[in-house]
């Protein structure tokens, strides 16, 4: 999933009540497409008068929506950033960016909430694999003239889809091609390419077509 600002806000509020006694002040939430991080809390460290200390202000929570991630990873990312926010907004001292305090809060929330928050801002290999499995694919559901049904996954770009459609209609005896966008892991088993190779589906009734968007037929 790629979360919306509303989704992040809703979860921020729920987690705030569940894990922080509702004590975290609301802050602006932004979506980011930058590479290299899943989430980020930024703030400005402002001096309080000439001899005063510093205060952290102007907090912003950024959640990355560049890649489609499993919902649990998105939720754990929001929680990870909320721990950073909790520490910074309360001016608490930690031993490092993910120091003793951060880890203690992380352990508490993981235990209380059965979560899997980690100290990483990047995806681990398992999460990366999950992300590829869940990515949205352009899928051709090919209805052959003899009644057989075939599947072909094509790179999700209009030029590839149009090219493949044209070539397939020319080369094979086809009644119709339904093009769908699907994030269903079922379609991860088919290689994504523009090769003119169609996989016949022995039991077309097993195709996960209920939650898909039809691009065109
Ligand atoms: Zn962090």
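-> sequence recovered:
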């Amino acid at each position: 999933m790629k979360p919306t600002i509303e989704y992040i806000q809703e979860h921020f509020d729920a987690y705030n009540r569940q894990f922080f006694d509702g004590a975290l002040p609301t802050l602006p939430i932004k979506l980011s497409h930058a590479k290299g991080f899943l989430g980020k809390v930024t703030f400005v460290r402002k001096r309080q008068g000439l001899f005063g200390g510093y205060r952290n202000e102007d907090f912003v929570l950024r959640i990355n929506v560049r890649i489609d991630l499993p919902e649990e990873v998105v939720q754990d990312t929001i929680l990870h950033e909320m721990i950073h926010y909790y520490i910074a907004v309360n001016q608490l001292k930690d031993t490092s960016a993910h120091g003793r305090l951060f880890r203690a809060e992380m352990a508490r929330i993981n235990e209380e909430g059965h979560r899997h928050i980690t100290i990483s801002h990047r995806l681990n290999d398992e999460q990366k694999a999950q992300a590829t499995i869940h990515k949205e694919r352009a899928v051709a559901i090919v209805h052959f003239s003899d009644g057989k049904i075939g599947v072909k996954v094509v790179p999700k770009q209009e030029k590839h889809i149009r090219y493949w459609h044209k070539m397939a209609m020319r080369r094979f005896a086809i009644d119709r091609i339904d093009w769908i966008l699907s994030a269903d892991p079922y379609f991860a088993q088919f290689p994504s390419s523009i090769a003119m190779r169609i996989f016949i589906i022995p039991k077309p009734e097993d195709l996960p077509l209920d939650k898909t968007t039809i691009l065109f037929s």
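The chain has five helices and eight strands.
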